[in-house]
Amino acid sequence: MPTRPTWAEVSLATLVNNYKLIRDFVAPHATVCAVVKCNAYGHGAVECARALEAAGATWFGVTCADEGLELRQAGIVGRILLMSGIWRGEGEVVVEHNLTPAVWSAEQISEVNSAAEKLREKAFPVHIEVDTGMARQGVSAANLGFVLEAARKAKSICVEGLHSHLASAEVVDADDVEAQLAAYQRALEQLAAAEIRPACVHLANSAAIVARKESWHRLGQSTALVRPGISLYGYYLPFVTAAGDPSETREPSVKPVLAWKTRIIDIRDIEAGQGVGYNLTFVAKRPTRIATLAVGYGDGLSRALSNRGQVLIRGDFAPIVGKVSMDVTTVDVSDIPGVQIGDEVVLIGQQNGHETTAAAMAASMQTIAYEVLCNVSKRVPRRYLS
Question: Which pLDDT score is estimated for 248?
């Protein structure tokens, strides 16, 4: 089969090592729920989940029923948490395939309960998500009592878990995190007053695992889960103080799992004054050698990198010049000797002792590594290295 010379390499061995580092960091106080939502942050959900399950992972976090069903159909047998809940009409699929939904409304509870009754399931587990201050999803403190009452009346489900999400976990002294932790504790007390004692409690994402150990370390008498996402794939958001200053932390030494590569498909020399690309936004100030790469925004290389990003060629950095197009991107290789058509180009990864990361690319785009990784499109084939 013909293949376009653009691809991503995913090191499953690095992924598994990252998982083990995080697992050992929280042991014995918490269990890892490996977050593989959004196609495992662009790395490939099925392949990553299989590798993680083989390494001992027993919980997986996904966004929705579709993502959970994909894992089940691929043979994943571990617990699968639907972190963004369920949509109308999904109850039977969720129960039939033993997917564990987050719920935060009486309507969601009723739907899951009806499906469990129909399929003759008893004590089907759900996790109540409580909004402790992020105002994104989850039941508010004012409405938690109504949800608990609906759960008490639903005879075919059980409240297995209570969870929330921290808005500023990477800010090591954020007051809003303290307020959220206190709100979560009040929610636990409200469940206890209703004689509901969840077996699983969970708050911590990648940053909170490191910066907010109180969000998982000996949290109540239940089993604590932690939900690492971006750290599984080798990255953290920078840890800072509320004043915006860098903060020293001791996080597990995870490494990037994905490398993104392409090749040079054309080289040409232009004169000073010649423009390059759409709208000629780059104009050469000197005689310049331009290399065209077989990658563009259709592959996930953001147009925001136009005239500001860089790539590695023969171990040297080459700046992106002109606008990133849908299928191709142009770079200036004037100062890199010996460049040829067919040379390997590293967008994310290492080459000859130099490295460029998703975090570095994100900084050029004024965004975060999450977005860079998730945006690597499905037309970029993944090659899995075990």
Answer: 87
Report the predicted TM-score, pTM, of the whole model to 2 decimal places.
0.96
Nearest CA to 134 out of 168, 104, 162 is that of 168
Residue 306, domain extent: 258-385
Domain membership of residue 252 (yes or no) is no
Rounded Cα gap, residues 177 and 215, in angstroms: 10
372 within 8 A of 297, measured Cβ to Cβ: no
The string of pLDDT tens digits covering residues 73-101 is: 999 999 999 999 999 999 999 999 999 99
Spell out the residues 6+ positions from residue 146 whose beta carbon is closer than 8 angstroms to its own. Answer: 106
Using one digit for the tens of pLDDT, what is the confidence trace for 217-237? 766 667 899 999 999 999 999
The DSSP string of 348-362 is EEEETTEEE-HHHHH
> How far apart are the C-alpha atoms of 12 and 62, rounded to whole Å?
19
Could you tell me the CATH number of the domain that includes residue 171?
3.20.20.10
Whether the CB-CB separation of 200 and 126 falls below 8 Å is answered with: no
CA angle 29, 215, 15 (to 5 degrees): 65
Q: What contacts 24+ positions apart, CB below 8 Å, involve 315-318?
A: 315/351, 315/352, 315/353, 315/354, 316/354, 317/354, 317/356, 318/291, 318/345
Q: What are phi and psi of 108, to 5 degrees?
A: -65, -45
- Please check whether residue 247 lies inside any domain of the structure: no
Active site residues: 37, 278
Yes or no: say if 155 and 164 are a contact pair by the CB < 8 Å rule: no
Which residues, at least 6 apart from 108, have a Cβ–Cβ distance to it below 8 Å? 85, 86, 101
